[in-house]
Design goal:
Layout: H1 8-13, H2 23-53, E1 100-103, H3 109-126, E2 129-132, H4 156-159, H5 162-169, E3 174-175, E4 201-207, H6 209-212, H7 223-228, H8 231-237, H9 239-243, E5 246-252, E6 266-267, H10 268-275, H11 281-296, E7 310-313, E8 319-320, H12 327-331, H13 341-344, H14 353-367, E9 380-385, H15 390-394, H16 414-432, E10 438-443, H17 448-456, H18 464-467, H19 469-473, H20 477-487, E11 491-495, H21 499-511, E12 515-519
Parallel strand pairs: 1-2, 1-7, 2-3, 4-5, 6-8, 9-10, 9-11, 11-12
Helix pairs in contact: 14-20, 20-21
Length: 530
């Protein structure tokens, strides 16, 4: 029987107590109740705590999005799964009452780290739990240029402290390896092959690349693009989807999301409005308009519409809060200042303790100090000299355009790095009273004559050949150890426009309270990046 609505005031005013309770008796009753609550409270708290630690399926164990109480699970994924142990499919362990978001990585190590932070940032904006793929092998690794010799993928948790990150930002984080087994032969660093044979799964996803790339109006992982990339490049781009036998069908995001200037940021706010879980009026209306997009372009409509339970996105690199190059969000020196995925996620992605301690051992040995855990490492300035693919930017420029650069590849002269190091040393001494006699340099250049120039400055370089880094730990570790070592400096000097330099500088400045500078380059850098 339906109950007619009554204003709150009318219901309260009509209620009259049948019996008056004397004040002294009321005090006694309240005292008994208060004592009873105090006795039971520790047991209630312990029970509630255990339900979170055990990843109970009740809604009470979930993170309360946007609440003042942070997630307090023991593992990064606690509360986000209904069952445990990898299966032959990725859906079985997921909770039906939660929504998730995932995307592959395929842009090189540092760019992939940024994409991971962008994914988690979108999860925060849309109330979706991120599902993290491992990092695929990239061209930055030193390995044989042969698709038959691709190194294993790198688990997210091998390099980043996921439980700490989850605790800090207040949401659970799920690894794809907690959900689904890998195809035989597809290896992860530090893990054995799976014994379960995965099944192929189809999923409808969203493509940002289809409407933002000025040259290629297809999803980032389309078969057509794979045909354009041979050998190692092909293996790198489709490695993750092949590893977990996931076949996506992509729907483009609205063409109005495309930036006016090619290769500039797609706004997080626009994507969040589309990616929020259903019922979402904007998404529901837009999906009714999608058929015309394919009809006008004489293309076949995707087999599956975007999945709402597990939202899959093809490419998450060129995203930001501000207009212009998405790298400005990461420098913290763009028009909007400190915004974006670095502020909400990136600066909380601290290194996994074991690999950080390993890196400190490298530094102690390089600086000739006592090589013992916990032994003091002297203050130093870390330097990142990016070369390799920078040369590709300028190889077709005229001699007039290359004026002021060292050679046809328009690299900045090594002296410019030395001048910046001297500047940072001076600032550290004047502003913080810190004397930094040691300088650690990293570079992707292998030309011995250039490396001699660096050493002649008295700068130290980690010797991965002498340390047998690859032989002991694998092909990923020279890159990982260099990245971590850069972040441990008191000061930093990098290469303008290099994402590795941008992240290293932010870590030094915000984690260590250090001072950073960048060496500007004539082409390919960021104009206002000091």
């Amino acid at each position: 029987m339906a109950v007619a609505y009554q204003p709150l005031g009318s219901r309260v005013s009509s209620w009259v107590p049948k019996r008056f309770v004397p004040l002294n008796k009321l005090i006694i009753i309240c005292g008994i109740l208060f004592t009873f609550i105090l006795v039971l409270l520790p047991f209630v708290n312990e029970t509630a705590h255990d339900s979170v630690i055990d990843g109970a399926s009740s809604v009470s164990s979930l993170v309360q999005w946007g609440s003042a109480t942070p997630w307090t699970g023991k593992n990064a994924s606690d509360g986000a799964l209904r069952s445990y142990g990898k299966k032959d499919n990725f859906r079985e362990n997921l909770r039906p009452d939660m929504n998730y978001i995932m995307s592959g990585f395929h842009s090189g190590w540092t760019n992939d780290v940024m994409m991971g932070a962008n994914l988690i940032h979108l999860g925060l904006l849309t109330n979706r739990t991120p599902i993290l793929f491992p990092f695929p092998p990239a061209r930055h690794l030193r390995y044989i240029d042969d698709a038959a010799h691709i190194p294993p993928s790198l688990p997210f948790e091998t390099v980043f402290d996921l439980p700490r990150l989850s605790h800090t930002i207040g949401i659970p984080l799920v690894r794809i390896s907690e959900l689904k087994a890998r195809v035989p032969g597809k290896l992860l660093v530090g893990q054995e092959e799976d014994t379960i044979q995965p099944v192929e799964e189809e999923i409808g996803g969203w493509s940002i690349w289809m409407v933002t790339n000025p040259e290629w109006h297809k999803p980032k992982t389309s078969d057509q693009e794979e045909e354009q990339n041979k050998e190692i490049e092909d293996g790198r781009r489709c490695y993750q989807l092949d590893t977990y036998k996931i076949k996506p069908y992509f729907t483009p995001v609205p063409v109005t999301f495309r930036p006016v200037i090619d290769w500039t940021s797609v706004h997080f706010a626009a994507l969040a409005s589309l990616f929020k879980p259903l019922p979402n009026p904007f998404t529901q209306f837009y999906l009714t308009q999608v058929p015309s997009y394919f009809t006008e372009r004489h293309r076949e409509q995707p087999k599956l519409a975007p999945d709402d339970h597990v939202l899959y996105i093809d490419f998450l690199y060129n995203l930001g809060e501000a207009e212009g190059d998405s790298r400005y969000d990461w420098t913290g020196r763009g028009k909007l200042g400190k915004v974006g995925a670095w502020e909400t996620v990136g600066k909380y992605m601290r290194w996994e303790p074991e690999i950080e301690e390993m890196t400190k051992g490298y530094l102690r040995r390089a600086f000739g100090v006592k090589d013992k855990k916990g032994a003091r490492i002297p203050p130093f300035i870390s330097v990142h000299i990016r070369r390799s693919d920078i040369g590709d930017i300028c190889k077709d420029l005229s001699s007039e355009e290359l004026a002021g650069t060292t050679d046809k590849n328009c690299y900045a002269p090594i002296q410019k790095y030395a001048d910046r190091v001297a500047e940072v040393q001076k600032l550290l001494l004047e502003e913080k009273g810190i004397k930094t006699a040691h300088v650690l340099a990293t570079t992707d250049e292998h030309d011995e004559s250039f490396l001699k120039e660096v050493r002649d400055l008295g700068w130290i370089m980690l010797n991965h050949d002498k340390e047998l880094t690859i032989e002991k730990n694998g092909l990923w570790y020279p890159t990982l150890i260099d990245s971590i070592a850069l972040s441990l400096g008191t000061g930093f000097v990098g290469t303008s426009g290099s994402t590795m330099s941008i992240l290293a500088r932010r870590r030094v400045e915000e984690w260590n309270g250090g001072i950073g500078r960048q060496v500007l380059r004539k082409y390919g850098g960021l104009d206002d990046e000091n």
